[in-house]
Amino acid sequence: MRIILSNILAIYRRELQTYFASPFAYAIAAIFWLLSGFFFVIILLGPDGLLVQIGQRDQAGITEPPIDVPYQFLSIFLNLLGSLALFLLPMLSMGLYSEERKRGTLELLATSPVTNWAVAVGKLLGVLTFFITIMLPIVGLEAIAFSASNPPASFNVLLLGTFFITIMLPIVGLEAIAFSASNPPASFNVLLLGHLGLILMAAAVLSLGMFISSLTDSTILAAILTFALMMLLWITDLIASGIGGSLGEAIGHLSLIKHYSDLSRGVFNSSSIVLFASYVFLGLFLTAQSVEAFRFQRS
Predict the structure, then answer these.
(1) Among 212, 247, 176, 257, which Cα is nearest to 90's?
(2) Which pLDDT score is estimated for 142?
(3) How far, in Å, CA of 141 to CA of 37, rounded?
(4) If residue 293 lies in a helix (H) or strand (E), which one and from where to where?
(5) What whole-number distance in Å separates Cα of residue 96 and Cα of residue 124?
(6) What angle in degrees, to the nearest 10, is found between the helix axes of 116-146 and 23-45?
(7) Shortest CA distance to 84 belongs to which of 43, 127, 137, 31?
(8) Which string of b and e fits 164-187 if b means at least 16 CB within 10 Å?
């Protein structure tokens, strides 16, 4: 067991070095932050944004029912982040094994003493850690902002927001300041379960994308096929509603978006955790079998 863990750790470190030294990975992160910031502004300040709706209600003298702005914002924003992740995650997973095939190092991995499972787990943990790193500034600032969820904005929030503004993304600082002035305070369950759901969904997508990457030496083809699979899992709800009956209900349970939406609303459902874990295990299993088949062909 100790040898297996050390092998996983070695692969994990290798993958981390690859991602943190890749300009393309940073370009993906920049696109993710840019689009996240755009959606942030639209949700709050757009023509139909939450702040505009509150202003219209105040002008009309409507006070009931009250709008829970933090909850509404987190629910909408996390759903959009989940949809955005489905488009960007295939670009992170496309080179996990395709690059190994292209460089001719996959045969070395397949015939090495390191098990295929250990390689697959190490690679998945590496790319998932990179994705979590992309999310950390947002999560960290939200957590700090929620601790000061009564106006005025905390000096610590403003200071830390300025720090991350300098090195990360301006809109993240605005998000922290906006949440620090929220009344009533934003729900901690929505914050925790929403981001946990985003990480679990990312792990599921990256695991399946890793399997597809092990089938081809073309990173572009791997990204396209992974994206096509994610689109299929994205519209599963529509397919299920069209079929109807018990079969449609069973197909509907396979939807990534449906289970992620539950978590992003702060609703804990054990079936959602089981589904994401099943996708992760399926991706790891198929990847290990794919590499084993490659080794068998070369033997």
Answers:
(1) 212
(2) 56
(3) 14
(4) helix 270-298
(5) 8
(6) 40
(7) 31
(8) bbeebbebbbbbbbbbbbbeebbb
Task: Name the residue type at position 84.
Answer: L
Token pair 């946990």 is at which residue?
196
**Cβ neighbours, 10 Å, residue 45:** 12
Residue ranges in the chain modelled with pLDDT below 70: 63, 65-70, 137-189, 191, 298-299
User: Residue holding tokens 């250990």?
Assistant: 118
Q: pLDDT tens digits, residue range 188-243?
A: 667 678 778 888 889 999 999 999 998 888 889 999 999 998 888 878 877 887 88
Structure tokens at 50: 């939450």
DSSP line for 13-76: HHHHHHHHT-HHHHHHHHHHHHHHHHHHHHHHHSTT-HHHHHHHHHHHT--SSPP-HHHHHHHH
Neighbours of 280 (CB within 10 A): 20
DSSP 88: H
Query: What is the rounded CA–CA span in Å between residue 289 and residue 210?
Result: 12
The dihedral region occupied by 36, where left means phi > 0, alpha psi between -120 and 50, and beta the remainder, is alpha
**How far, CA to CA in Å, does 124 sit from each of 32, 35, 92, 118, 283?**
20, 25, 11, 10, 10
For residue 259, give both structure tokens.
């289970």
What is the per-residue pLDDT for 152?
39
DSSP-assigned letters across all residues of 173-220: HHHHHHHHT-SSPPPHHHHHHHHHHHHHHHHHHHHHHHHHHTT-S-HH
d(CA 207, CA 195): 18
